[in-house]
Design goal:
Number of domains: 3
Oligomer: single chain
CATH class of the largest domain: Alpha Beta
Helix content: 25-40%
Number of helices: 17
Strand order of the largest sheet: 6-7-8-3-9-10
CATH topology of the largest domain: Rossmann fold
Number of strands: 22
Shape: globular
Largest sheet: 6 strands, mixed
Radius of gyration: 23 Å
């Protein structure tokens, strides 16, 4: 009997002649957290899809608890106790939390009696085990009303309820706050104590060091190394991931800031749940927005961008009071917004890179009312080069790109309007360390060119590393604003929890 709960041996896979995996091996022990890391496009997603049966390998084999699996498919994978929690939850938005959990766990024929109270009780118990106690997630809430972090907790509850022996977590903390990450780690510790093997995929190397027993590094479809976590440090992991030494992840520069570009005075929005918000951001400044999930960070961005217009207060651009009642108003006034939910709102995955790049500013690539495709491609080529988007052609669908490159396309869409204010909601969520450094460097370049940037982030190191000032939200309002030199993780968390700094 093997002491491994999962073993992938010499897995290879190619798509349209492009090698995604080259003889990659990976193993997982019971009660172990084995991290799988690498830049976007390194092969992590392909390996996970093969383990879960969504993709068939060209070569290699899979064994589960010592038993060779001839042909893995999603149903067999589930029956073998493999559960995957992806970065983008796969829930039904028009069903309740309890119904989503039941769909994943219940068996039986269509004509059977349902015990709705028992279903609700079970959902509540699983949510508590998943670390959702103390949140507003209840069995009867519609999934469409849940934030991305809340949906991830529901996915974790589903995996716990399925009594999975192998749990794959793909960027599980991408949109969680520090407090929620701690709760997730407690869940992982409970799974580990029950003998569950966890494959943990994350770009946050500090989390890898905190939670993993071993780490396997993939680069360009090949397995570079498997190490015990106590054998490697952050710099060595980065070197193995990118094949080179990497400079500062947070290349913040001291820039002489100019006039106030955007100012909010006592702004409230009932629809957004935002109350009496006052803040400003200057030319060349990066203003960080911190706060726990539900504090109103994204709602603030949506109000500035006109998605949920303000009911009262004043919004000023360069000292002039303006009415922003729709995204059209915001775009016309030079406000760009890269939202948190990339697949649904950041980019149109079914459209090409070129079409996405011009989407917010079609007049820039139009002649006599018709889109000039050559002009559109030239515009896209410019941003592909500037943002280092990895693609063979600007005609490629965005959905075929890795997550990090999709994020860059979403950014290109708004840079194409030549904004004066750019709102970035979780700009490096789910992005590998190399791309993260590039995006931060680009932010520094844009600020140096005079762009006013509002950056919403759940990552305290990112906020501390890139912001000139940090406004901390709590319960729909600004609890306090900290200068760069005064900000600490403790002071930000204190304000976010509603306390004094």
């Amino acid at each position: 009997m093997s002491d491994l709960v999962l073993e992938a041996i010499s897995i290879s896979k190619a798509f349209a002649g492009v090698k995604a995996l080259r003889s990659v091996s990976f193993e997982l022990r019971p009660g172990e957290v084995h991290a799988l890391i690498g830049e976007n496009g390194a092969g992590k997603s392909t390996l996970i899809k093969i383990i879960t049966g969504a993709v068939k390998p060209d070569a290699g084999s899979i064994s589960v608890r010592g038993e060779h699996v001839l042909q893995m498919d999603p149903r067999l994978s589930k029956a073998l106790g493999i559960a995957a929690i992806y970065q983008q939850p796969s829930l039904f938005p028009d069903l309740t939390v309890a119904e989503n959990i039941a769909l994943a766990l219940e068996t039986g024929g269509a004509w059977r009696t349902l015990d709705w109270k028992a279903r609700s009780r079970r959902a509540s118990q699983l949510l508590e085990r998943a670390g959702a106690s103390g949140t507003s997630i209840g069995p009867e809430r519609l999934v469409s009303t849940l934030s991305m972090p809340e949906q991830q907790l529901v996915e974790i509850a589903k995996a716990i309820g399925a009594d999975a022996r192998i749990v794959i977590m793909d960027e599980p903390t991408a949109s969680l706050t520090e407090r929620e990450v701690e709760s997730l780690f407690q869940v992982i510790a409970r799974l580990r104590s029950e003998g569950v093997g966890v494959i943990y995929i994350s770009h946050r190397l500090e989390e890898i060091a905190a939670v993993a027993d071993r780490v396997t590094v993939l680069r360009d479809g090949e397995s570079i190394a498997t190490k015990r976590m106590d054998e490697v440090d952050r710099s060595e992991l980065i070197r193995m991931m990118v094949g080179r030494e990497l400079g500062s992840i947070f290349p913040k520069r001291e820039i002489a800031m100019g006039e106030i570009v955007l100012e909010l005075r006592d702004v409230s929005s009932r629809a957004a749940g935002m109350h009496h918000v006052s803040l400003n951001v200057r030319k060349g400044e990066i203003l960080g927005i911190a706060g726990l999930v539900g504090s109103g960070r994204t709602e603030l961005a949506e109000t500035i961008f006109g998605l949920t217009p303000a009911d009262s207060g004043e919004i000023l651009l360069r000292g002039e009071r303006v009415a922003i009642t729709s995204p059209t108003d915001a775009i016309r006034r030079g406000i760009g917004y890269v939202p948190e939910d990339r697949p649904r709102h950041g980019a149109v995955l079914e459209m090409s890179i070129a079409a996405n790049t011009s989407l917010a500013n079609l007049r820039r690539v139009a002649r006599h009312g018709l889109i000039d495709r050559d002009m559109e491609r030239r515009l896209a080529d410019k941003f592909v080069e500037q943002l280092r988007i990895k693609t063979p052609s600007v005609d490629m669908e965005v959905g075929a790109l890795s997550g990090g490159n999709q994020q860059k396309v979403a950014l290109a869409r708004w840079l194409a309007i030549d904004p004066t204010v750019l709102i970035l909601d979780e700009p490096t969520q789910g992005v590998d360390v190399g791309s993260k450094s590039e995006i931060h460097s680009l932010m520094a370049d844009l600020a140096e060119q005079g762009l006013a940037i509002v950056m919403i982030s759940s990552e305290l190191p990112e906020l501390l590393g890139m912001s000139d000032r940090i406004a901390v939200m709590h319960a729909g309002g600004i609890r306090g604003t900290l200068d760069r030199k005064d900000a600490t993780q403790q002071s930000i968390l204190s304000l976010a929890l509603g306390h004094a700094a």
